[in-house]
Amino acid sequence: MQSQTPNNVKGSGIGFLGAGAAFLAIGISGQVAFIGVGAAFLGLGIAFLVKARRDDAK
After folding, report:
1. How many Å separate Cα 57 from the centre of its chain?
2. Tens of pLDDT along 1-26?
């Protein structure tokens, strides 16, 4: 399996953050079920960004 470069991981993190924000906005607007999905996507986005930042520091 090919390891991901920090730029690929950072791009994924930004994508997950964007999707999480969109799901949270939908959840806040009335579809309450999407709040949990949005929170999960935000968590994934933050995790990917932290991983990319750690890989850049090496």
Report:
1. 20
2. 456 676 777 888 899 999 999 999 99
Least Cα distance to 51 among 14, 1, 24, 2 occurs for: 14
Alpha carbon distance 58, 46 (integer Å): 19
Q: Where are the domains of the chain?
A: 12-57
Instruction: Determine the pLDDT at residue 41.
Output: 96
49: tokens are 């960004």
pTM: 0.80
Query: Residue 50 and residue 30: Cα distance in Å, rounded?
Result: 31
DSSP for the chain? -PPPPHHHHHHHHHHHHHHHHHHHHHHHTT-THHHHHHHHHHHHHHHHHHHHHHHHH-
